[in-house]
Amino acid sequence: MKILLTGANGYIGTRLLPLLLEDKHEVVCMVRDQRRFAAQSDLTDQVTIISGDLLKADSLSEIPADIDAAYYLVHSMSSSDSGFSEMEKQSSENFSSAIKKTNCKQIIYLTGIANDDHLSKHLGSRLAVEEQLKASGIACTILRAAIIIGSGSASFEIIRDLTEKIPVMITPKWVKTLCQPIGIRDVLAYLNGVLLNEKAYNQTFDIGGPDVLTYRDMMQGYAKERGLKRYIFTVPVLTPRLSSLWLNLITAVPYSLARSLVDSMKNEVVCNDDRIHEVVPRQCLTYAESLHLAFEKIDQNSIVSSWKDALNRGYLQTDFMDQIKVPQNGTLQYKVKMPFDRKAEEVFENIWSIGGSRGWYFMDWLWHFRGFLDKLFGGVGTRRGRTSNVDLQPGDVLDFWRVLLADKKNKRLLLYAEMKVPGEAWLELKLVEFHGGAFLSQIATFRPKGLWGRVYWYAMWPFHIVLFKGMAREIITYQPNT
Hints:
Elements: E1 2-6, H1 11-22, E2 26-31, H2 34-40, E3 48-51, E4 69-72, H3 84-99, E5 106-112, H4 121-134, E6 139-145, E7 148-149, H5 154-165, E8 168-171, E9 178-179, E10 182-183, H6 184-193, E11 203-207, E12 213-214, H7 215-226, E13 231-234, H8 240-250, H9 255-264, H10 276-279, H11 287-299, E14 332-340, H12 344-352, H13 364-376, E15 397-398, E16 401-407, E17 412-417, E18 423-434, E19 437-448, H14 450-477
Parallel strand pairs: 1-2, 1-4, 2-3, 4-5, 5-6, 6-11, 7-10, 8-13
Antiparallel strand pairs: 9-12, 14-19, 15-16, 16-17, 17-18, 18-19
Helix pairs in contact: 1-6, 3-4, 5-7, 7-11, 8-9
C-alpha cells in the first residue's frame, strides 16, 4: 500500500517510518526540507521524499493522487503561545483540501485525550483539528493519547529534568491531576495497527497504558526507578504563568511550550473506554516498564528521535539549511586560528562531542549562565543538551544552538544560535590541514539587528576574547580519558 507520512522528521514520524517499511508499504515522506531528511535518515533510498509546508497550500501539489492512507503527525505546540491555534487550523485546512484530491481511503491522526468539558487552549485546538480532518469526507481514525513515555519525548524529558535535579519540590496543584501515560512502543503499535483497518474507519479511540497516575505519582515513580529519594509539596499559589516560568527555568522546554503544557495539565487525561483493544489487541507496557525501556535507550546512546529536534518557528525558519553559507555582508566576526601538532582526528572528535554532557571545554559555567539568562527571557537555554552524545546531524539541537552542518569528512561543524539575541549568530569550528601542519579555525559571526544588536556584540567582546581563545586551546589539548 502507498502511505503518505507527514511529519516524517518529527518525534513520532521518525520512529514510525521503519515499521511501515518493514510491512512492505510504499512510503511517501512529506517534509519541509528534503536536505534535512536526507542528512538524518539512512532510509532515503527506500522512500519517496516530497517537499511541502502545511501552512502553504500551494506547496502541497506534490502529494501523489494514488495514496491509500495518510498519517497526520504535525502540530504547532512549540510555536508562539498566541499563534499555535491559528497555525494548527491553517495546517489542517490546507491538508484536508489537498488530500481530497487524492484516492486516500483513511487519515490517521494522533492527538491528545480530550474528555473534559472545559479544555485548555491547546487541547481545544487539537479537537478543532480533528473536526477539520473529518470534514475532508475521508474516513478518519483518531488516536487520542495522554503523555507519551519514551526516550526523547517531551513528557519524559520534563519528568526526568524535574526529578533528577530537584530533591525537594514545591509544586503547583496540577501535579495532582490524573493522567494515563502510554509508552512510545505502544503508540507506534496502535498507529501501525489501525492502518487500513476498516474496523478503525471513522472511529475515535483513547489509548493509554494500564496505569492511571497523578503527575506527582509519575515523578515519584521515576525517582523509585532511579533509586532517588524525592520530597514533593503542593501549594495552591503557583499560577499557570508562574508554573510555566518554573518549568521553563528548570527543564529544557521553552516558555511557549511550557505554557501550553501547564494549561493542559489542568485537564484529566484518562481513557474513557478501551475499544481500541477490539481493533488492535495489545497488552500495553506499564509506566515502570516504559521508563525502563527509555533508560536503556539513553544508556546505549540510541535515542532515535527527540521532541527537541522539531524546528521551532519562534527561533528558526524552516529553510534554515539555506544558512549553511554564513553571510559576510553586514556582519561582525571574532576569529581564532590556533595551530596544533596532534592528530587531526583526535581534535575533531573533541569538536564532534562539544556541548551536552561534555560541555564547552572552557569556562563552562559562563555558557550555562548565558543559558540561564536566556531562560529568564523566554529562550531555550542550555538544558536541551544533545539528542545523541556520539552523533550529530543537521537539524539537531546542541544546547542553545541548532546544527546546520555536521561534516565529518571535511572536519567542519556549523551552528546557528537559537538563544535570544538582538540579531543572528553562527559559530563555525573546522580543522584546516596543510602540508606539514594543521590549525583549528573558530569563527563567531553575528549579524546585528539595529543599534541594540551592535551594543550587544561590543558588550560581549571582552568575554569573546577570553572565552573563544580558551575554548580553542582546550579543544586542541583535551584528553577524553583524563
